[in-house]
Write a structure and sequence with these properties.
It is a single chain. The chain is an alpha+beta fold. Helix content is about 60%, strand content about 15%. Strands 1, 2, 3, 4, 16, 17, 18, 19 and 20 form a 9-stranded antiparallel sheet that branches. Strands 5, 6, 9, 10, 11, 12, 13, 14 and 15 form a 9-stranded antiparallel sheet that branches. Strand 18 and strand 19 form a beta hairpin. It is globular. The model has no long low-confidence stretch (mean pLDDT about 85).
Length: about 900
């Protein structure tokens, strides 16, 4: 290893220096705790999800054209032409109906939606000439329920809809006076519309909304008008929520809301507080579990030192997060829980090493020097390796990459901080709290009893290490036994890979449970507003009739035409807390969807809350590009007929296939297309979606496509949100590869060898033995979050082999033989290996068992780490011995060849 002696000595002297100058160290320690506490409680803003600037702008226009072609010629085409002169545009999608035109303009990732909207407006002002009577609206996209507003309230009561609308306007005006509120917009239900029969405008109700709340155990429904609220960018969700409630209470006190009710339909702050409280509860539970593990496996004094170490690292991390402008959002908080079990490794390794030296007779500063000198390089290398493993998460593409970017930032900050504190402050605390062996001061009888009880447990761990060391020494004495151990490991690894083939592939599988179900009502065109509301009432009746106790509230988020002209109502059903509910949200959604099939006049579908983009009902989508409507119609019919006959694996069925955009006019970058969409029995099964795509590609080669009158490049396979999901998943694979290459380069530098770093990575395939069977048994799909967990797992498991190999190399440097070096390394490093891995698993288990959102990610690490650690301790020695022997044989052969040619071998 390169300069290991010098670096070990440098780190050891640094630790001793901080311990000797304890007054300065103590001052730094207390400052970190104090400032970190104030930062966490007062300065770090609480947010839900991190704010992501989706570089998307909506352009919507209305004009009473005679038909689709006229609307396209007079409105859509001029808009598309003007957009050609706007810099930074990546793609333009449009949909044109006889009365409206909707465009989705996607910009390059370095643009914000506001910058895009500003550029579009400038281009329209100078270049766009629309016919008289045409209106146009440019809207920058926001990741909210309607792409614009973050909060939603519903106003009910009054005498009629017109009265409600007037009262809503009054409330909205008052809300806009609040400092944290940028805009409050009423979703008007009574509007002036053009009547084609009379060729004039008339006033009529065009949409509806309702509110449902439980009063004395019974759900009460009423007509409502919605108000969407946009927050000021400098205000937190909590501040805006308080502003809204303050404004409403003020109006109530002034008797201006007598006869009216205000429902907080969408309050992001409440969701944020609930999610943060849940994650904080998991964090506290994780810390308690970690400390219990340390108490059992090491000793109670070391557990106390680590108990102080954990909040110190968290406090320092909070300070840095505040300095770089981060908020305490759900992703950051999750990353802290994830890294809790990892950064404790640094503290555990240092504390355990000091405890080991003191148990073996070293005292005071000498024990600290020898402990840090023995483990500092391995500990630093392990921490840096883990940091490198997380770093490539920065390069995951798309919106999802931006969404999870706080994870590698938070994890790497916490790991770097933990390493520094472990080598500076922790030795001082260990010096004070872990007794020297020669310390003969009379112990308090209670402390003596605790020592006696706890020492029985950690004494058993030490004894187990001795027995494992003997077992390793025994099988290494016989080459065939070592080979047998390697064969056993390969059987376990390939068995794990077998289970991987049985896993469902779903980039974003549905959550196993949640506190919300979303209902979408798809109305046919031309339905009257009272008919639409009657269908909604029937949905409410069926929902409450089947789940009267589980459903606690019903909120209408939006009712009306979507961006692409579909008539829909989007509704949320609030459920009782999943921790107290027996029936999962998935079961409730499935049963309600079947009940809703009896509703005539519309398609009504209930879906559980989804991670990532919501699963679309028609998850497979292919596009056929051509300017001739007859060619589009004929070819789309052929593709539809073929897709209907495809038989899929895993029991998935194609339930329906439809052709879209034949009568309407849809375009991408000016090229017209029709779309064939397939509805699968499991829309979240990404593998089935890809199976349909591959089947179509195999059947329709270039020659067959040309025979249908289409160009070679006429087919597109953008599958809606599923395409974005697949891109994100594929980028995690690239990130994993990049992480492995960078880690390998670092290990080559550390061990000054190309072969030994490859041995280090054996720990990763070892994890397959538990990773894939564990996911299969817990019914978790191979998903995006599993891949994030696997990336983290790579960095964690190689720490075990680094720790073991480092000590083996130290033993060899002292002149010990291979077998003795390995057996001694197992004996000495057994407890730290078991302790650090158990601590990491214990830190993640509360999250895995209580939070469906993060379950698959946490379990990936738990199962993989458990299997890898076990096999590293028991089987890795066989690999190391085998490779060492092979290298010696090769070197001996090379030496003989050199000798035969008269080449001197340098020693």
């Amino acid at each position: 290893m390169v300069n290991s002696g010098f670096l070990n000595d440098l780190f050891a002297r640094m630790s001793v220096g901080f311990t000797k100058r304890f007054r300065i160290t103590l001052l730094i320690f207390l400052s970190i705790l104090g400032i970190g506490f104030v930062t966490y409680t007062s300065f770090l803003k609480r947010e839900g999800l991190p704010e992501i600037a989706f570089p998307v702008v909506f352009v919507q226009s209305q004009y009473e054209a005679g038909n689709v072609a006229e609307m396209d010629q007079k409105v859509t085409l001029p808009i598309e032409q003007a957009l050609k002169n706007v810099d930074g545009i990546k793609q333009v999608d449009s949909n044109t109906s006889p009365v409206s035109s909707s465009l989705v303009v996607s910009f390059q990732s370095d643009y914000t939606p506001e910058e895009g909207a500003e550029a579009i407006n400038k281009a329209f002002e100078s270049e766009l000439d629309l016919p008289k009577g045409a209106s146009i609206n440019v809207l920058p996209f926001k990741p909210t329920f309607d792409g614009t507003h973050e909060f939603l309230i519903a106003v009910s009561g009054g005498t009629d809809v017109e009265d409600l609308q007037e009262k809503a306007e009054q409330i909205a005006t008052d809300l806009e006076t609040q400092e944290g509120i940028k805009e409050a917009n009423v979703f008007t239900q009574i509007n002036d519309v053009f009547d084609p029969q009379t060729q004039s405008e008339r006033t009529m109700q065009t949409t509806f909304a309702r509110a449902g709340e439980k009063e004395n155990g019974e759900m009460k429904f009423s007509s409502a008008v919605l108000i969407g609220i946009m927050k000021d960018k400098n205000s937190s969700d909590k501040e805006v929520s308080e502003d809204i409630k303050s404004s409403v209470e003020s109006l109530k006190n002034d008797k201006q809301l007598d006869g009216y009710d205000v429902h907080y339909t969408l309050d992001v702050a409440e969701d944020v507080e609930e999610q943060i409280d849940s994650l904080e509860g998991n964090a506290v539970t994780a810390m308690i579990v970690v400390l219990v593990v340390l108490l059992v496996l090491v000793n109670w004094r070391s557990a106390i030192v680590t108990a102080i170490f954990i909040p110190t690292v968290l406090a320092a991390t909070f300070i840095i997060l505040q300095m770089i402008g981060y908020t305490l959002n759900i992703i950051v908080l999750f990353a802290l829980i994830l890294v809790l079990g990892l950064f404790v490794d640094d503290g555990t390794i240092v504390v355990e090493a000091i405890d080991y030296q003191k148990r073996h007779g070293e005292n005071g500063l000498k024990a600290i020097y020898k402990a840090v000198r023995a483990i500092s390089i391995a500990d630093t290398s392990g921490t840096v390796t883990t940091m490198i493993a997380f770093a490539p998460l920065f390069f995951i593409t798309g919106i999802l990459g931006e969404f999870i970017s706080p994870i590698p930032v938070t994890v790497n900050i916490a790991l770097a901080v933990s390493l520094v504190i472990a080598l500076t402050i922790l030795p001082m605390l260990s010096h004070w709290l872990i007794r020297d062996k020669k310390d003969k001061k009379r112990k308090n009888k209670y402390i003596k009893a605790i020592d006696s009880l706890v020492n029985k447990f950690n004494g058993l761990v030490i004894e187990a290490g001795i027995y494992v060391s003997r077992f390793v020494r025994f099988y290494l004495s016989k080459w065939y036994l070592a080979l047998l151990m390697i064969v056993v490991s390969l059987i376990l690894i390939f068995n794990g890979l077998f289970f991987s083939s049985k896993l469902k592939f779903s980039v974003f599988p549905p959550q196993k449970d949640s506190n919300t179900i979303y209902v979408t009502i798809n109305y046919p065109n031309g339905l009257a507003i009272d008919e639409k509301e009657d269908i909604a009432k029937e949905m409410e009746k069926l929902a409450m009739g089947n789940y009267p106790d589980e459903i606690t509230g019903i909120e209408y988020f939006s009712v009306g035409r979507t961006l692409f002209g579909f008539d829909q109502a989007f509704i949320g059903l609030d459920l009782t807390d999943m921790k107290t509910r027996e029936t999962s949200s998935v079961e409730i959604a499935e049963k309600l969807t079947k009940k809703f099939e009896g509703i005539e006049g519309a398609s009504v579908i209930a879906k559980e809350e989804q991670v990532g983009a919501p699963a679309e009902e028609y998850s497979f989508k292919m596009q056929i590009f051509d300017e001739d409507q007859d060619v589009l119609s004929a070819s789309a019919a052929v593709f539809k007929e073929y897709i209907e006959k495809i038989e899929l694996k895993e029991g998935i069925k194609i339930e329906d296939v439809k052709v879209e955009y034949i009568d309407a006019l849809a375009k991408t970058d000016g090229k017209r297309y029709a779309q064939v969409a397939a509805k699968l029995s499991d829309p979240t099964n990404t593998g089935a979606v890809l199976e349909v795509e591959n089947s179509v590609k195999a059947e329709f080669g270039s020659e067959k496509v040309r025979s249908m009158g289409l160009q070679d490049d006429a087919l597109g396979f953008y599958k809606g949100s599923e395409s974005d999901n697949i891109d994100a998943f594929n980028s995690t694979l690239v990130a994993l590869l990049v992480a492995i290459v960078i880690m390998y380069a670092l290990l080559v530098l550390q061990f000054n060898s190309f072969i030994e770093p490859l041995l280090v990575f054996v720990a990763f395939p070892f994890s397959f033995a538990g990773l894939f069977p564990g996911l299969y048994l817990t019914d978790n799909a191979l998903s995006f979050f599993v891949m994030v967990g696997v990336i983290a797992l790579v960095g964690i498991v190689v720490n075990n082999t680094i720790m073991l190999m480092d000590y083996i190399k130290q033993n060899e440097h002292e002149g010990k033989g291979v077998r003795d070096s390995i057996a001694d390394a197992i004996k000495v490093r057994f407890r730290p290996l078991v302790t650090t891995s158990t601590v990491a698993i214990a830190g993640l288990l509360p999250l895995a068992l209580t939070d469906p959102l993060w379950e698959s990610l946490a379990l990936s690490i738990v199962f993989g780490l458990a299997a890898s650690t076990t096999m590293v301790i028991l089987i890795f020695p066989a690999y190391f011995a085998a490779v060492t022997q092979i290298v010696r044989i090769v070197n001996r052969g090379v030496g003989k060849v050199k000798e035969a040619f008269g080449v001197k071998t340098e020693v």
